[in-house]
Write a structure and sequence with these properties.
single chain; about 325 residues; alpha+beta; BirA Bifunctional Protein, domain 2; seven-stranded mixed sheet; two-stranded antiparallel ribbon; 12 helices; about 20% strand; rod-shaped; binds 3,4-dihydroxyphenylalanine
């Protein structure tokens, strides 16, 4: 055996034992480069074959080719082994234990007032009304003046208004949305306006922030009978087939005549809110032709409705955010 052949034999054993010791596929790649790469000793030997004597050329050519083939085979066999055990350990590490208990899912529910609001709004949308909203910070003009509250009129002070700077107020009712709607639309108008309202008042049946739902209809030939029919239909929808509405005389600056409306509840009556025929002064203020159009409007508190429907005695509990209370609905 020539010195070159001995060298080849040594490289072959070294390579095979390195392959068998390799623990990862990336180590195998290093081994391949070290023993079979372009700069590897075995490759150098192959390159020098041309300069050997014919006898030597044959022997060295044969044994160097055999050695490389053997190393290649060992590499690819080992590579398969490692790849499949690497895949297996990765799968094991990423396994999901489907028997573990899940994270408990907290299911929310709608606030009692919101249920009433959704129910009432759905009813009016079903009758073809639009839904209108306005800002909670409102101009004194939209909240009072355009609704026929004269400057210094006692009805203004009855509202316990939160006054802000520069002629702005926290709106005391949703009626200013009537004004905004009429300024932006020509009649006929059919809208329902839910929203938050504010008054400086707090006791078991009053909170500084409360909700109102307003409705406004302006069209040709609208009468008080249309108002009553609409209210009765709404009462049946919210309180059941036997519910009825009764009207009592009242006063609001923006309606003439004005009424309080009550809905039958158990053996008695529940005060719902105010209503009336839109005062011609209000229609004129927004540029509507009062010879051609009349309208009705009403506004009531869905919080009060929720108190009655769900038997809650203190309105303030609706706004305290106590989950023990809210989860009961
Ligand atoms: N805005 C009135 C209030 O908050 C309620 C009301 C009364 C609304 C009569 C109306 C109405 O639309 O016609 O006290």
């Amino acid at each position: 055996m020539t010195a070159t052949e001995q060298r080849i034999e040594k490289l072959r054993t070294e390579a095979l034992s390195a392959v068998s010791d390799a623990a990862t596929t990336s180590e195998l790649e290093d081994i391949r480069i070290r023993f079979l790469g372009r700069a590897a000793e075995l490759s150098e030997i192959k390159k020098s074959i041309g300069s050997l004597s014919p006898d030597e050329r044959k022997e060295v050519g044969k044994s160097s080719n055999l050695a490389s083939r053997e190393i290649e085979n060992a590499l690819s066999e080992k590579k398969n082994d490692l790849a499949s055990s690497e895949r297996e350990s990765k799968l094991r590490k990423e396994a999901v234990d489907v028997t573990l208990p899940g994270v408990p899912f907290q299911r929310g529910n709608l606030h009692p007032t919101q249920r009433i609001i959704d129910d009432v709004v759905d009813f009016f949308v079903g009758m073809g009304y639009g839904v209108a909203e306005g800002p909670e910070v409102e101009t004194d003009y939209n909240n009072f003046t355009a609704l026929n509250f004269p400057e210094g009129h006692p009805a203004r002070s009855e509202h316990d208004t939160f006054f802000l700077d520069e002629g702005l107020v926290m709106r005391t009712h949703t009626s200013p949305v009537q004004v905004r709607t009429m300024l932006e639309n020509e009649p006929p108008v059919y809208v329902v306006c839910p929203g938050r309202t504010y008054r400086n008042d707090s006791d078991p049946t009053h909170t500084p922030m409360f909700n109102q739902i307003e409705a406004l209809v302006v069209d040709r030939g609208i009468s008080l009978a249309d108002l009553k029919g609409t209210l009765n239909a709404m009462a049946r929808h919210v309180f059941g087939e036997d519910a009825k509405v009764r009207l009592r005389p009242s006063f609001f600056p923006f309606t003439e005549p004005s009424v309080e409306m009550d809905v039958s509840w158990g053996d008695g009556w529940l005060e719902l809110g105010g209503a009336g025929m839109v005062d011609p002064n209000v229609l004129e203020e927004v540029g509507y032709d009062t010879e051609e159009y009349t309208g009705f409007a009403f506004g009531f508190g869905p919080d009060r409705m929720a108190m009655v429907k769900y038997g809650v005695h203190d309105l303030r509990m609706f706004f305290e955010g106590d989950l023990r209370f809210l989860r009961q609905f």
